[in-house]
Specification:
45% strand; 15% helix; alpha+beta; 14-stranded antiparallel β-sheet; single chain; 14 strands; 238 residues
């Protein structure tokens, strides 16, 4: 019994160390990894955290799981991801192959294990409090202007690139009913345009709950020429 418990704790420490190291630039401003024993998580320990799909409805799968889940697609490949690690403002979603996606307040901020990865994301001009559930605090009725700095590995020669973009986000005036895996919610579509220094423009859309400005769904290209990412919250983690 003691040896088994020690082994689980050792494996948990290794997993937490991997997750923290993989996204150090994202979580550096926060204090350490949350205490979460992935080896005691029945889904992670038996099936892994990634349930492949080919675009089919995953609602039934999500309904059977009692853990926080998102529906994720990267360049058309995806399925359900189960929450693997969490700390204030940051959630880690990891596949059984150790592919990791990180959301900071619901906004994509890093990846690991994908070959070409988003290494970090930094905002300037947005001022959410440490306890805020969203990067977009305040009224959605006016345009937001800010800067986004990202670091990634290039698609062609694996170089590390760091660039800053001037960002503007405008939200639709009215909500629309958006079908998510486990709910249909009235959300406002907010359209973000990033004009990257050195050339290139990327566009994203976030579907945001006007009651608390949480991001429930998103569609984005993470950097110029990078992969496309879409995600939808199935069972929320909050």
């Amino acid at each position: 019994m003691t040896r088994s418990r020690f082994a689980r704790e050792k494996r948990s420490r290794r997993k937490a160390a991997f997750l923290c190291a993989a996204v150090f630039c994202v979580a550096n401003a926060l204090s350490g990894c949350a205490r979460f024993d992935a080896n005691d998580h029945p889904l992670l320990s038996t099936l892994g955290a990634f349930i492949p799909s080919t675009g089919r409805d995953v609602s039934q799968q999500a309904e059977t799981l009692k853990y926080a889940t998102i529906k994720l697609s990267l360049d058309g490949r995806g399925g359900l991801l189960v929450l693997s690690e969490q700390q204030p403002g940051v959630t880690y979603w990891q596949s059984s192959q150790s592919e990791t996606v990180v959301l900071t307040r619901g906004y994509p901020s890093a990846t690991a294990g994908l070959g070409h990865n988003l290494q970090m994301t930094r905002f300037d001009g947005l001022s959410p409090s440490p306890s805020s559930a969203t990067p977009f605090v305040g009224a959605l009725s006016r345009p937001r202007h800010y800067q986004v700095t990202r670091q990634w590995t290039s698609n062609d020669d694996n170089r590390t690139i760091t660039r800053t973009a001037d960002a503007v986000m405008r939200c639709d005036a009215e909500t629309t009913k958006v079908a998510l895996p486990l709910a249909t919610l009235p959300l406002r579509a907010c359209h973000e345009k990033l004009r990257w220094q050195g050339g290139g423009t990327t566009k994203s859309t976030y579907w945001i709950d006007p009651k608390d400005n949480r991001i429930w769904k998103g569609r984005t290209q993470l950097w110029p020429g990078g992969f496309d990412m879409t995600w939808e919250v199935a069972r929320p983690w909050w």
